[in-house]
Structures are given as C-alpha cells and as structure tokens.
Amino acid sequence: MVMPQLSLARENMKKNTIENMIAAGALTRDQAARYGKVLDSFNDLQLTRVWLLSDMYREETGEILHPE
Q: Tens digit of pLDDT for each residue in 4-40?
C-alpha cells in the first residue's frame, strides 16, 4: 500500500484549506480567490492552524451532512 506524501508547502496548504472550506460548505468557489488572498496575509503558523481547523471542520460537517 502506497501512502500519500504530506506536503506542507504554502501553496498546497492554501489550496487544501480552500478545498476543505468548500467541501464543508463554508465557502463557495466564487469566494475562493478572495479567501486565497486572505490566506496569503497569514504567517506560516497562522496558515497551519487554519489548515488544520479547516480539515477538522470538513470532517465534522461531512459526518453531519453525509452520515454513513
């Protein structure tokens, strides 16, 4: 089994954060470019925190919206 590699590059974190927020229903695709600019203003620690929180939010809303 091949495990995917975790990439902590800023652009990847920014992209993943936006995708997580869209998947959670907290952001629309139309808002993505503007939100990307907001993420650009964050330092590395702030971006990492937002990325982690967006992943948790996506998981939580996914469980609520799509129970298995």
A: 566 679 999 999 999 999 999 899 999 999 999 999 9
Residues 22 and 3: their CA atoms lie apart, in Å, by: 25
Domain boundaries, the chain: 10-65
Element holding 55 (H helix, E strand): helix 44-65
Task: Name which of 48, 51, 49 is nearest 19 in CA terms.
Answer: 51
Rounded distance, CA 9 to CA 59, Å?
22
pTM of the model: 0.78
User: From CA 38, how far away is CA 64, in angstroms rounded?
Assistant: 28
Contact indicator for 24, 61 with CB cutoff of 8 Å? yes
